[in-house]
Amino acid sequence: MLHFLHVSGGYGNVEILKDITFSIDPGSFIGIIGPNGSGKSTLLRTATKVLRPFKGEIYLQKKSMEDVTLKEMARTVAVVPQDSLFTFPFKVLDVVLMGRTPYISRLGLESKEDLMVAFEALECVDAMHLRDRFIDELSGGERQRVIIAKALAQKPQILFLDEPTTHLDISHQIEIFSLLRRLNKDAGLTIVTILHDLNLASEYCDDLILLSDGAIKKRGTPKEVLDYRTIEEVYKTVVIVKENPMTSRPHIFLVKR
Q1: Predicted pLDDT at 167
Q2: Do residues 130 and 142 make contact, with C-beta atoms less than 8 angstroms apart?
Q3: What pTM was computed for the model?
């Protein structure tokens, strides 16, 4: 579905990503992890055509990213950013309808189909009851569900998320990732998310890409990637890794210095 072949890239003349090669298959739930400055956000921006790679090739559904138009991109890939700022207190339904922009005619008028898709997206994230509320009135968890509904209204095949639970408490973190897991399993949506929380990544992602200094250090299942030697080498922190008795997935404990 999405393929990176020997991609290097960054900002200006500063190379951040170094010879990145990987593929994202349909139906995957992938976590991109790594310490600050390892290239996670740069990888996401390169994958979504915000940044043009210095070297290498990127293919979206076997088509060179160079030849993918912005409208094609918006109809295939949706992004949930780390922070979504609104300068006007839009109603929730209006926010979700923004996701229909790639499909709306030049007249800028929403069709009955656009409204139907927006309602479906709100239902999907259990936020239909919020449709007439203003976005700035919502709690963090409610707001994040609405932003995900906006992304779903694009009818994407791949959903990228940049730290989707950064400002949420643990209850809302579980709520959001349970929603993402349901979208992945029930709707077949391919999900790629940047995460700092290694335990969330372990519990919800089926595949992890660990970045270190702009390169892929390791890729595989949580059990394959989250071993204590690798974590200590990359994060420069002493940890203990134990199996979660409920899920059999690795759980990381920090060791106090």
Answers
A1: 81
A2: yes
A3: 0.92
